[in-house]
Amino acid sequence: MSRISSALLVGAGAVTASAALTVAFALGAATSAAPAGSDQSIVLAEAAATPVVSIQGDQGHPARLRVVTTRTERQVLELGDEGISFGSLSFAEGEIRSKRRGEVIGRYVFRGLALDSLEPGGLEDRDITVEYTLPDGIILVSGVVSAPGGLPPSTPQDQVIVGGTGRYAGAGGSVRYVPIDDNEQRVIFTFAW
User: Fold this and answer.
1) Minimal CA–CA distance to 94: which of 180, 3, 191, 5?
2) Which fold has domain 67-192?
3) Which of 21-35, 43-57, 66-80 has the lowest mean pLDDT?
4) What average pLDDT does this structure show over 58-63?
5) pLDDT per residue over 86-126, tens digit each?
6) Which residues pair with 134 in a beta bridge?
7) What is the DSSP code (8-state) at residue 83?
8) Residue 49 pLDDT exceeds 70
9) Is the confidence at residue 30, as pLDDT, over 60?
10) Which residues lie across from 128 on neighbouring strands?
């Protein structure tokens, strides 16, 4: 069975929206498949290093969304000892792309509060809030990350989706950050409705 016919089977409801879906196709061209009136559809875009997958669940709500973020700016406000320490605030913003080096489809804003800081070069915990602004709404994420002092996380991290607007109104679920480098990461949203 070809990858395209596999995608069509998923879009045709062979896998229901309530099933745990993991799709990582590497198609050369964008594909969209769903029978008329179906609750489920799958949209697969050209996949370079990061496949972009938006799987729709019941009533048109997305079940999963994969994007790549690129940080364009970062500032730190030190409130305690010199260097990042308990209470330091960090702010970042950047671009959201459908794939690495793809077209910009949105922006994100990050705010973090250092909760503790270990020995120099050790990990610190940060209480974070991230707003992802996409063409069809905003996704709000919150949680605690562990990262090397003053740097983005170097290992995959999981956070919670606490809500959204527009198409993401009423969203819950989880998000997984997978670092690519110090300024870029894969972001995988798994929605619960």
Assistant:
1) 180
2) AOC barrel-like (2.40.480)
3) 21-35
4) 71
5) 788 899 999 999 999 999 999 999 999 988 766 666 788 89
6) 137
7) S
8) no
9) no
10) 112, 143
CATH 2.40.480.10 in the chain is located at: 67-192
Distance CA 144, CA 48 (A): 30
**Which residue in the block uniquely carries the two structure tokens 């919670």?**
160
**What is the CA 176 to chain-centroid distance, rounded?**
6
Long-range contacts of 164-173 (CB under 8 A, 24+ apart): 164/137, 164/138, 164/139, 164/140, 165/137, 165/138, 166/136, 166/137, 166/138, 167/60, 167/61, 167/62, 167/136, 167/137, 168/62, 168/134, 168/136, 168/137, 168/138, 168/139, 169/137, 171/61, 171/139
- Cβ atoms of 84 and 90 within 8 Å: the answer is yes
Amino acid in position 182: D
Residue type, 68: V
- Could you say which DSSP state residue 37 is in? T
